[in-house]
Backbone:
């Protein structure tokens, strides 16, 4: 490598795009440049570094072992550069620019509408790119740099992230309106011994929580009928297929005017899940993210009375 010549950020961006797509044409489309320009820049990067990074072929692009390693480092460099941009923008104007937020489908649709209104009023220059994924996928994507921060059920245990606990959300027992336990106000946990319980699929942390709850109550989890969303769980329960446990934000938002299911708390037994805001450790915008956490807490306290803000 020439000691006076260093790779440019643009070249690193091009390398990461080629590594992700494994195709020059797709990478060029992603970057909104011509394929010849991309090829020239990548060839120049290889000459600068003195190594081959990508093997060209009719079937596409195959990254060399060195190319894969350099691409991973380049991704980190680009994330750090973006962090510099975010830090300076925040220092000048408070929270601003675009923040990439991930949320699970069991939380996002019921929490974020209330939060976004408050965020936009407080920080009008802030833009949120929001995407839903199951919690386990969210965490992996956060570490990879796909998201700046995620809202997720806890626990999340890692030395690589910061976890800001937001609120504790009760879980409600739910059954069909003609079920013997419907409309009882509070349910005796002993009445659920042997009950057939529906849960979400294992991609969701709520699956594990309901599984453990079934063990504790002596109930039976129906593994052949796992739901893909809270709505599918509600519909299956409403049809009489089984009973389930639904989080309070969903119950407050979706159950009220519907007639498919009845909900109730368990007598003398507190069941809940804890929701948190998580971002990568040492992120330059940590103070701004804590401000977002406070806005989420205020929104939850105002809209969801059954929750416990932390």
Residues:
């Amino acid at each position: 490598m020439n000691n006076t010549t260093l790779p440019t950020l643009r070249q690193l961006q091009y390398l990461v795009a080629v590594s992700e797509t494994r195709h020059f044409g797709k990478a060029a489309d992603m970057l909104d440049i011509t394929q010849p320009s991309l090829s020239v820049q990548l060839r120049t990067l290889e000459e600068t570094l003195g190594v081959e990074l990508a093997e060209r072929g009719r079937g596409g692009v195959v990254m060399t072992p060195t190319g894969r390693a350099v691409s991973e480092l380049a991704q980190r460099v680009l994330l750090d550069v973006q962090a510099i941009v975010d830090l300076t923008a925040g220092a000048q104007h408070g929270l601003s620019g675009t923040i990439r937020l991930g949320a699970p489908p069991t939380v996002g649709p019921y929490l974020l509408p209330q939060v976004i209104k408050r965020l936009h009023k407080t920080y009008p220059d802030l833009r949120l790119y929001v995407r839903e994924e199951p919690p386990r996928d969210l965490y992996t994507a956060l570490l990879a740099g796909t998201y700046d921060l995620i809202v997720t059920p806890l626990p999340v245990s890692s030395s690589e992230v910061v976890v800001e606990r937001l609120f504790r959300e009760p879980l409600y027992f739910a059954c069909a309106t003609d079920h013997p336990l419907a409309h009882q106000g509070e349910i005796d946990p002993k009445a659920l011994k042997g009950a057939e319980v529906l849960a979400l699929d294992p991609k969701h942390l709520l699956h594990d929580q309901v599984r453990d709850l079934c063990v504790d109550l002596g109930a039976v989890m129906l593994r052949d009928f796992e739901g893909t969303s809270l709505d599918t769980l509600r519909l299956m329960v409403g049809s009489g297929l089984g009973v389930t446990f639904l989080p309070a934000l969903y119950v407050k938002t979706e159950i009220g005017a519907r007639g498919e299911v009845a909900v109730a708390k368990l007598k003398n037994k507190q069941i809940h899940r804890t929701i948190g805001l998580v971002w990568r450790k040492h992120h330059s915008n940590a103070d701004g993210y804590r401000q977002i956490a406070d806005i989420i807490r205020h929104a939850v306290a105002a809209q969801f009375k059954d929750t416990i803000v932390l």
The mean pLDDT is 88.
